[in-house]
Amino acid sequence: MRSARSSARECVGAFSEVVLAQERGSSHLVALKCIPKKALRGKEALVENEIAVLRRVSHPNIVALEDVHESPSHLYLAMELVTGGELFDRIMERGSYTEKDASHLVAQVLGAVSYLHSLGIVHRDLKPENLLYATPFEDSKIMVSDFGLSKIQAGNMLGTACGTPGYVAPELLEQKPYGKAVDVWALGVISYILLCGYPPFYDESDPELFSQILRANYEFDSPFWDDISESAKDFIRHLLERDPQKRFTCQQALQHLWISGDTAFDKDILGSVSEQIQKNFARNHWKRAFNATSFLRHIRKLGQSLENEASGRRVMSRSHPGLPTSQPPEW
What we know:
Pfam families: Pkinase. The protein is α+β, with helices and mostly antiparallel strands.
């Protein structure tokens, strides 16, 4: 690692902050992620390994790591700058939005995640906030961001639950060893949301939310899914398969006709989807991170009830449908 140029702005924050920075001597802009070294104590080898992995990543739908610098107090990661905004915001700004549009978005993300998996990289925190548009233009590609370094905060990912509650796979909640299939599950959740505007699993109570996930307890609610193709529903069923051994891989998902064929409907669903996004994703609940200690006691309490209700009886109602810069520094 080279030393950071002295003009890099000092960053604050519990773990990291991202600022806009300009490369000295050029007009090139980057997103500069600033990580306090005190947050990395005891994890230096892990960080070095993760940066080495990120340097190998090169894909048109993945935000690239361009360079690494350090100062006495901080580590600086210069990331490719993307300016098109978050996925949901862009959907809300569209003049129209169809199932075909959703299929095209999912195909791009699947291609990126399949590439990561081919390198042995598991994202572990796929969610709409990590899907960004490269540019503000209408034909902009979608970009996957914030992968790999998430395990700096979480430690041993194979034994530690991490991520965002509504997107985590059942095997992660069960504290079983997990791998690439958790990303496919998260893509199933994202695909579901893209077609209706609300999540497949939702409850204000974490124990009940986790119970839904552990059972893969979701529905294609009417009227929100009435105009969605059976092909789309079949695609989602294969991604939200409870058994990770039976769940689609990214390659299988890419070969499904909803992605590779012409089965996605072309009817405008913007009105319904945008209304539900507004109602369901202004909630901090869906943006907060969580760790193992916050839900292990919930899982223990759920254990007995899961056995008693193995017949498949619903344990709760699902009421969520319809619920109410300045001049950049140099680096």
